[in-house]
Amino acid sequence: MSALVRLVDVSKRYAGAPALHSTNLSIERSKTTVLIGPSGCGKSTLLRLIIHLIEPDSGSIEFDGELITPDNIGALRRRVGYVIQEGGLFPHLTARANVLLMARHVEKSHEEMQKRLLELCELTRFSGSLLLRYPIELSGGQRQRVSLMRALMLSPELLLLDEPLGALDPLVRSSLQKDLKEIFACLGQTVLFVTHDLAEAIYFGDQIVLMNEGRVVQKGTVSDLRDKPAGRFVSEFINAHRGIALT
Amino acid sequence: MKLRRQSRSGGFPTGRDPRRSRGRRCLTVAAAILLFGVTVGSANPVVIGSKKFTESYVLGEIAKRALNDAGIPAEHRQGMGGTIILWQALRGGQIDAYPEYTGTITQEILKGDNASSLEEIRISLTKFGVGMTEPLGFNNTYALVMRRSEAQRLGMRTISDLQKYPDLKIGLTHEFLDRQDGWQPLRERYALPQQNVIGIDHALGYSALANGSIDVKDAYSTDAKIKQNDLAVLEDDLQFFPKYEAVFLFRLPIPTDAIAALRRLEGTLDEKRMIRLNAEAERTKNYTTAADLYFDVEAPRPSGYSGPSHTAESFPHKLARWTLRHLQLAGFSLLLSVIVGIPLGIVASRGGPIGQGILGFASIVQTIPSLALLALLVPLPFFGISARTAIAALFLYGLLPIVRNTASGLQDIPRSLRESAIALGLSPIVRLWEIYLPMASRSILSGIKTSAVINVGTATLAALIGAGGLGEPILSGLNLNDHVTILQGAIPAAVLALLVQWFFDLLDRVLIPKGLRL
What are the residue ranges spanned by the domains of chain A? Predict the structure, then answer.
């Protein structure tokens, strides 16, 4: 099966400084691809390029065989869900309104939206009684669940997660990790997951993409990285996390 | 009309317009338009204008009565402003006649013409379609005055005597300081040594003179205050000041019987009589009474006419009228500020040269003194002397807080939330309308609140251009040095500002989404 997203020779500079060197990458369908690397390695840049929050300086990005351009990005964004670290919920809207926001604008019927909302509550283990609360009235974990519901509302083909659990305390984080993994499996979801935490990467990643200084250093499974490191940086990165990663 | 007159009565001491500050003169223009607007539909009475000081009011009333007595319907638009405004209104046909002074005509109206004799002036005026009566009989020229006791102690009788006392403190109206027949040439002519010269409001100057803050000030020879305050006039021994003989200017096309009625006033008012009429007007705060005195010397009005009690309009009614007008001015200008300011703020929030330009413009407007802004707007074609001008000025002042708060409210939205909105696939319009503006609503509303309070405060200045509102009693009170009258406007204005603040606090609860208030 062909890749859902394909980046060909994509590069990006910020104010002259390269954020992403020329990069090729494929994101396979129904798998979770994890982008990992130290801060500033270009992993978030890559994610933001895919949803066209920033434009590449060179190269091309295909989504489902279609070249992403400013003309079709609007339609393509509806086929992609996006969750960020702090959830990105709009504070003036209730949890419910946040989740339904986009659906209202693609003219889904009320019944359809209501049905989907209940499905999502169940899927994300979010109590329906909290739906009328505002983001500020929810805990960090609850907010991320709402954010996930919002991202999944229109049944996207691709789910982009930018350190979605980074701001949560360890217990909440661990329970959400478990739920997320179940959800991805249950939906057969194609996921691109950005994290700087190797344990998380190993937990989720069918494919791990290790990045450093704007380049993809190595792609593969965790055992590929551990057993056949593509260079000193890979070994060092793995070793630095060893204590945690292997627990 | 009576109320209006009442509220402004004695608004200015018996001065003559040339001494009004230029700014104020221009501002007063707007006042007139309002008045014009009211009467445009009526059946062509002869319209008399007057400048914004006691003597002009009185002369206007006299002219009105003279016309009425001759069977000609006439009305009097009181206190429209200064020379330029009245002259333009006359040429524009908004008024048919108004009292003027020959010195002002040569110095201010016919500047370049070198007309000096009455006949030369009349010929020059004809070019503008304007006629002039013969002098009414008094010369209201400039004068320098001192406390009588002080003048006697120093043995001073003439302006030349000032040379002997270089330490005397001189307080002059701002206009006199600037005029071509004002302080600079006067000082050169008389070789005056005084260094201690300050600019001071005309009415306040009398208080300053009384309490010794200043020793010498400028005045007008028919000013009733000279007598009231027991002041000595220093003789213009070098004949420096030009003649300011009172005349009526009229539009040549008005009916000949109207011209004849005005001309019957020629040579009938000497200085002594004018001073008395001015004093009567200031004492009773009723110009009609003073004008009646001119026609009816033998039978002065009963004493019941004196004092403000003669007015037909009760204080609550006046207050309601001022307040309503005030709210109209502030409210309408605020509405414009909101309608224009929010879109400008949205554009400005994007930064770049255009955004910087918008914020820069709004900031510059804010730095222009309100008086100056009014004066700048009055000469523009669309504005002129109208409430429009007051509203436009208030609108411009209200702009900056709204533009800036809209821009900063939008800029303060975290990038992550902006990007979430984009990534969701919302269209730019929906993003703005459903996400960005609601999120910035607190900031935008606080900008609107600031504008509203500023507008309620600044709207008091609208009275300067006759646009009414609570500034009316404030201005009258300032000019009369009458604290009660000032407070009649100042207290309601302050209460209004508080109410506006309170109203917007309430509005916050309705308009700011609940999620942002938790």
Answer: 1-79+158-247, 85-155
- pLDDT category at A225 given cuts 50, 70, 90 is confident
Of B379 and B111, the one with more pLDDT: B111
**Exposure pattern of B1-24 as b/e (b: 16+ CB <10 Å)?**
eebbbbbbbbbbbbbbbbbbbbbb
CA distances to A135, A222, B19, B253, B284 from B75, in Å: 67, 98, 26, 17, 21
- Taking contacts as CB-CB distances below 8 angstroms, the residues of chain B near A102 are 424-426
CB-CB: which of B419, B421, B515 is closest to A94?
B515
Share of chain B above pLDDT 90, in %: 41
Mutate to test the interface with A, among B416, B419, B420 (most CBs of A within 10 A): B420
> Residue B213 has which token pair?
């803050």
Residue A150: its chain B contacts at CB < 8 A? 424
A75-79, A219-223, B68-72, B176-180 — which is least confidently predicted? Answer: B176-180
Lowest mean pLDDT across B166-170, B180-184, B362-366, B409-413:
B180-184
pLDDT band at A163 (very low <50, low <70, confident <90, very high): very high
Domains of chain B: 2-139+243-310 (3.40.190.10), 142-234 (3.40.190.120), 315-516 (1.10.3720.10)
**Predicted local confidence at residue B384, as pLDDT:** 61
B239, burial (CB in 10 Å: exposed 0-12, middle 13-18, buried 19+): exposed
- Which of A53, A105, A135 is the closest to B422 by Cβ? A53
- B62, amino acid identity: I
CA distance B223 to B208: 17
Structural contact between residues B47 and B39, judged by C-beta atoms closer than 8 angstroms: yes
Q: How far is B415 from chain A (nearest CA, A)?
A: 10
| Residues linked to residue B250 through DSSP beta bridges, in sequence order | B97, B131
Q: Looking at domain A1-79+158-247, does it have CATH number 3.40.50.300?
A: yes
- Kindly state the average pLDDT of the residues B89-100: 90
> DSSP label at B427?
-
Q: How far apart are CA A71 and CA B252, in angstroms?
A: 71
Average pLDDT over residues B141-170: 92
Q: Hey, what long-range contacts does B124-129 have (CB within 8 A, 24 or more apart)? A: B125/B249, B126/B252, B128/B91, B129/B91, B129/B251, B129/B252, B129/B253
Task: With a cut of 70, say whether residue B127 has pLDDT above it.
Answer: yes
Q: State the nearest Cα–Cα gap between B412 and chain A, in angstroms.
A: 13
Contacts of B444 in chain A (CB under 8 A): none
pLDDT band at B225 (very low <50, low <70, confident <90, very high): confident
> pTM for the complete prediction?
0.67
Contacts of residue A105 in chain B, CB cutoff 8 Å?
426-427, 430
State residue B295's pLDDT score.
82
Residues of B in contact with A157 (CB under 8 A): none
DSSP for residue A206: S
d(CA B218, CA B194): 14
Tokens found for residue B285: 């705060």
Which residue on chain A is closest to B435 by alpha carbon?
A90
* Residue of B124 and B518 predicted with greater confidence: B124
Ranges A159-173, A233-247, B387-401, B455-469: which has the least confidence: A233-247
Number of inter-chain CB pairs under 8 A, A vs B: 64
Inter-residue contact B28 to B85 (CB < 8 Å):
yes
Is B298 a residue whose pLDDT tops 80? no
> How many angstroms separate the CA of residue B440 from the nearest CA in chain A?
10
For residues A82 and A73, give the distance between their C-alpha atoms in angstroms, rounded to a whole number: 14
